[in-house]
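Today's session is about reading a structure prediction critically. Students often jump straight to the picture, but the first step is always the sequence itself: look for stretches that repeat, for charged clusters, for runs of hydrophobic residues. Only then move on to the predicted structure, which in these notes is written as discrete structure tokens rather than atom positions. Here is the chain we will use throughout the hour.
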Amino acid sequence: MEKMEIDIEQIEGRDYERKGTVWTAAAHIVTAVIGSGVLALAWSVAQLGWIAGPLALSAFAIVTYYTSTLLANSYRAPDPVTGSRNRTYMEAVRSYLSPRKVYMCAVAQYVNLWGTMVGYTITATISMGAIKRAGCFHKFGHDAKCNASGTLLMLLFGIIELILSQLPNLEKITWLSIMAAIMSFAYSFIGLGLSVGKWIGNGFTKGDYVGIVGLSPAKKTWSSFQALGNIAFAYTFAEVLIEIQDTLKPSPPENVTMKKASFYGVGATTIFYLSLGCAGYAAFGNNAPGNILTGFGFYEPFWLVDIGNLCIILHLFGAYQVYAQPIFAAVERQVAAQWPDAKFINRVHTINVPFFNSTLRFTLSKLIFRSIIVLVTTLIAMIVPFFNAVLGLLGALSFWPLTVYFPISMHIAQEKIGREVPKWYFLHGLSIFCLMISIAVSIGSVVDIASSLKMSAPFKTVG
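Below is the predicted structure for this chain, in token form.
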């Protein structure tokens, strides 16, 4: 039995009831920030060494938290407490900056969001393959040839995301973010526990103060740039911050709640990053693998490695949606504004779900547009299986504008900070420094892409 009704949330300009709290926002942040890249931080610390590695982890945590507090104040304009809401990052930029910068923001934000979705598809596939390979290594020995083709696994991940993509919006997937956040803590603890166990088993601390030695100056430079990029972009969540803030209750003021959520989210992330990065480097030294679990820094206990990779997969189910929902919302707002009276866009189909005593609500426009986005994302991941190298470049290009430049520029405009104020020079100095980091990392990413092109082929992902 099917009935028809109007989907109020589809109509441009209508609000929905916001029920988010500091803890739901923190869960969204942790889900967005702590990705499987946390397991690559031991490699990053190995490139920089015992001095620069922990310092870089701490410095980027401070920068990310500081700029997130500036961005949180931009949710409303012109006043951060009583002004009009900006429901998306791009709306916030439009409220404070020029139309040209709005266009720059749109390109940086949505390319990075979509690129992250492609990267997560590949990363989840690698973890799926690692589960199969772990069993193979356990059965046939560590020197066995244990490969796992990722094509079918990518299709499976894409199908599951196709289903999850029909969830209404970021406000309605809090349960998914909480599950994903729990999973991120779980595999981080597993990676940390295995690293500490190996460290204790070694009986000494590995590693050097300056990181890997014996490399050519060029190789050392590129690897250091990549390590800085991994660390810098491991923290960023600016591209979804405003969208997360738009889920919060209006009392207390959203910017106050978001600053607390950012403190808890970035704080928890930093503790994990420092612990796992340093423990992994202490355990493996200069031979730290690119990913502790999928790179088989550990073979045994194989069942614990399997659990860790399963947690990665479950986490990425939720993290994918945190990045996808803003894209879905942007497309649907644009379509609704173009054809506001179209029944195809506004009419809801409700189907009773047997055995669960519930109903499934959807519109044809949501079903079709969201399905197309997920299908294209999955196809690109299959065609370009080394996309994580490309993602590093996308991250490098988007880190400075999204995490640093726009939040600082909007803060200067909001507070009307002039050149006569020392804070103006501090903010611009911070922006220029982060721009230089992004340029350096971009160069390192291009070198990595060139190397990946030589070793990868379409539809040949091996996890």
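Discussion point for the tutorial: The longest strand covers residues 347-353.
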